[in-house]
Amino acid sequence: MPVPSIIRGSRHAVQLSAGLVVACLLLMFNVQSHASDIRTLDLQQLTDEISLSSYVVQVQPGSGEDSLSEIMALPNSRWSGVPQTSRSLGRDYGTTWFRVDLTSTNNLKADSAYLLLGYPHYDFVDVFLVSESGVVQSFYTGDQRGFHSRPVDQRTFLFPLEKLNQSTDAKVYFRISTPGPLLIPFSLVTGAESKLQDRNTSMALGIYFGILLIMFAYNAFISGSLRDTAYIYYLVYMASVGLHQLTLQGLGYQYFWPDTSLFDNNFAVALSSALMQGTAVAFVIRFIRLYENFGRFERVAGTVLLIYSWLLVTGAPFMEYASFLTVVNVTGAVSVCCGLYIGIIGWRKRVPYARLFAMAWFIYLIFIAWYLLELASILPTSPFGEHILAFGSVIELALLSIAFADRINHERELRLRSQSKLMDVQVAMNAELEEKVRLRTSELEEANRRLEILSTTDGLTGLFNRRHFDELYEKAYLQACRDGKPLAVLMIDIDHFKQLNDNFGHRFGDLCLIDAGRLIRNVVAGQEAICARYGGEEFVVILPDASPEEAQNKAEALRLAFARHKVTDGANEKIMTISVGLTVEQPVDRSAWEKLLQAADSLLYTAKRNGRNQVAFLRNTGS
Predict the structure, then answer these.
(1) Which listed residue, 112, 178, 438, 567, has the most CB atoms within 10 A of its CB?
(2) In the CATH scheme, what is the code of domain 38-189?
(3) pTM here?
(4) Looking at domain 466-619, does it have CATH number 1.10.1020.10?
(5) Which residue of the set 298, 386, 396, 537 is catalytic?
(6) Mean pLDDT, to the nearest integer, of 353-369?
(7) Which residues contact 205 (CB under 8 A, 6 or more apart)?
(8) What's a single GO MF annotation on this record (predicted)?
């Protein structure tokens, strides 16, 4: 292989090559030493717990090496150590044998030592306790054999070792077959330590599921109030997370489906994983309003991912478990990355609640990456590696709940703003409507007033017409009866009006009537007089509460005003005189109002017979 040009021809190349060779030799030596150096664990060192990572060795059996006797006959060179900094051997699709060499086993007592296999999801686990005399005890258990097959009622695998007290030295062989990740949290513990660990783990898991249950109940209550489908997806997603963790921690198998014939533990893991992904994608699409707020690429990607996720849910019962886990883990990582991407895009688009949304998925992505990298032996094993996803999920769900609250507050603020704008628009519309109503009412009132004027006045003279006069006169007469006050009636007729109309034309006659109306209004102005055109060239004036002298003076003033006025129409000019019949009385008979008019009319004809252009007056004391 050619040397890179940057170091070609230099002595550094020689030094680098030598260093690489030495490193490879050291690595090979180290591997060989692990292959040949099998350590024996002295049980006198066991005070609470001892990790078996430095003591356990493994072997992959070949063909024809299935029985314990064949495995026990294998030379030490076939056995190799396990990784010191990882809790995973990767995925195992067959069977792996493990061995631990022990000494000082003759001091073992009941409940003094247990083999702890700390991963609760091995399908088949066979444990053989071998003393110097041979196999002293065997255990056959695993997820596929029912929970009752476990020697100790615990979510992980715990095997008592007191039967090894028959000899000083002993060996423990155990065979594990599982299609999933082969995790190796192997240790020896005392009975007291195992109970303490189980109690502490149960307390921590109780707190976790308690938090999950409280958040579920709270969000279910909010969902019932808001009726938002995003909340439904969120609740189903939260339930899927709870089911997934219940299964991963071994509690589901211990308490809910211990009989594998009813509900397979592997199926529970697969189904909960697929449900988590499907509901998470549906929740993201609905929560962030993907189809309303994002472009075509995001919408298409979200739809494809949603369909694919729900296909995984339907395919969970039918796919091979190991292959399904690989697919769902990869798809889950892609889904979380997409959720983070959508959250960041929403954040950049200034969607208020997208910041917390993106933060939730980012934190969860970190925990998922941490978990997967530990399983792949890329990261060293952490003390709480078994619970990484639980930590991440509760933080993510809490942040999503806060993001939901932020979303609700934002939408409520938008609604309040919209309501405020609608109120402003409504107020403006009401004000505009009120103004229009006011203007329309004013116009209607003016129209009614004009209509009333038209219906009550004479169109030519501007005085009241006969019909309206009859109404007003009757009221004035009855009022005079009630008050005991006098009432004056003036009947007026234009002298020789027919001759004026015939000699000078109808236009001149109309001018005479117009001027007559104006003169009557001017003379009686300032008093509560009722002036009307009674018919043709005849007019009537009612003077309420007028004394005989006042009425006579007013009648004479009217006659003089006419006598001094000239009606002019171009070259035609003529003085117009009137005859007036006047009567004044204090009414006492409410039904005699027509007689007063007849008396005034009779006096009018008296004035005409006596030569016209005069006032005929008669004072009565009662009707």
Answers:
(1) 178
(2) 2.60.40.2380
(3) 0.61
(4) no
(5) 537
(6) 78
(7) 249, 251, 390
(8) diguanylate cyclase activity
